Amino acid sequence: MGVLRDACAKLFGRSKFFTPADPAFKGFPPVLRPIDSFYSRRLYFRYRDVWNRPIASAPGSEMDVCLREQVPGTTRLKTTGKLKRCINLGSYNYLGMSGETWEATCKEPVMAALTSMGSCGGGASMLQGGMTSLHKEVEAAVAAFVGKEDAVVFNMGYGTNATTIPSLLGKGSLIVSDSLNHTSIVNGARASGAMVRVYAHNDVDDLDQVLRQAVADGQPRTHLPWTHIMVMTEGIFSMEGEICKLPGVVAACKRYKAYLYVDEAHSIGALGKHGRGVCEQTGVDPKDVDILMGTFTKSFGAMGGYIAASRALCDYLRSSSSGCILSTSMSPVVCAQILASLRVITGQDGTSLGQEKLDAIKRNANYVRNRLIDMGCEVLGDEDSPVVPVMLYIPTKISMFSRMCLDRGLAVVVVGFPAVPLNAARTRICISAGHTREQLDRALVALEEVVDILKLRYRRSVFG
């Protein structure tokens, strides 16, 4: 239908998605061919109101969502000035560090950093004047927390992978990547110039076969040995909610002398008895993982990312990664937030609040997961994962699910193409330690109503 509509628009010269060409650009070719933006026009614009919703409060267990309406005759949306208080099921605020407990736990050091160092610190890259004493504190604290010699901090989680991988690997190297790794890993691997091979998602046996074949064959054409082989995986896969089978991955890497790079964006601060991530959760010694990458945007209520590894490797990254030598450093205010969150998580603040939060995130996540399974929903992922994806499958249900949830006071995230395959649409429910049982029960009652209306009890209909 989309192709037919495009053909009619071209034939009759009328479409709300096409505007008259700017006379100033007469004779220039269009920036995009119609096919390049096909899914933007025929999927995204049909229910764009379910994405990019502005909020007007901190993303705690509840938050204020700005309501919008379509500008007549256009595809644009405008805010109405009205707010709707919603239970927050979409933020990565896993431990509630930027929610209800922020003032009691993080406000004082954050405001002190703002007063003493300003909002932008050196206003330069880490290599050229952007390093402050707070950055050094964060690096030391992170290294100690995850069990590595040293750490390097970056101002963006996506940029941590995208700029680190090309500085470590290049022509003659091999990257063996999980098929469902995050886009930041994919783009970093492509930019590196290294050969990339993919193994089946979270399948240790397939990883073993790929590594065995790679070692046996060597480089294409020359069959020389690879200069480096690096396996890349994630602690928690963000679209699936699955926890990495790390012990098996470590064993395979040792067997074939491959390096191991683990992205802990969603697992650090959320998995393990003390929140130290997937290594603690699965009983793996951090020394068996060569590079631990993570972000501060989830459990720490901040922004940015880090690489934790040997001191020699971290020193190398400081002088070679574009994320260190070209990107502006993290704000000292953000550094103060990270340090305050770490003190709470590790109990260095003198309270048991951190451990209570770590227990609560697992308890809340497992409660919601099991209730949704009992409803008959197709729920992905593993126990203890704060990411709880629920399958919608049909693209048209994306908009209906999101709008119905908003009407019932739920702020949810829905995911469609190209983030997932076209026929694998889903909602990704993110649970927080800040959620009370009463809030979760209210959310589940509303979700069950939507599940009934949209007929999302796929598991019950298939398995009886």
Description:
By secondary structure, the protein is an alpha/beta fold. It folds into 3 domains: about 1-40, no CATH class; about 50-90 and about 355-464, Aspartate Aminotransferase, domain 1 (Alpha-Beta Complex), CATH 3.90.1150.10; about 100-345, Type I PLP-dependent aspartate aminotransferase-like (Major domain) (Aspartate Aminotransferase, domain 2), CATH 3.40.640.10. It has 17 helices and 13 strands. Strand 4 (about 175-180), helix 7 (about 185-190) and strand 5 (about 195-200) form a beta-alpha-beta unit. Helix 13 packs across helix 14 (about 355-375) and helix 15 (about 395-405) crosses helix 16. It is globular, with a radius of gyration of 24 Å.
Work out the radius of gyration: 24 Å
Q: List the helices and strands in order.
A: HHEEHHHEHEHEHEHEHEEHHHHEHEEEHH
Number of strands: 13
Sheet with the most strands?
7 strands, mixed
Q: So, CATH architecture of the largest domain? A: 3-Layer(aba) Sandwich
Tell me the overall shape. Answer: globular
Q: What is the residue-averaged pLDDT?
A: 92
Distance between the termini: 35 Å
Number of domains: 3
Structural class: alpha/beta
CATH homologous superfamily assignment of the largest domain: Type I PLP-dependent aspartate aminotransferase-like (Major domain)
Q: Percent of residues in helical segments?
A: 25-40%
State which percent range the strand residues make up: 15-25%
- Look at the structure and give the CATH class of the largest domain: Alpha Beta
Unreliable runs? none
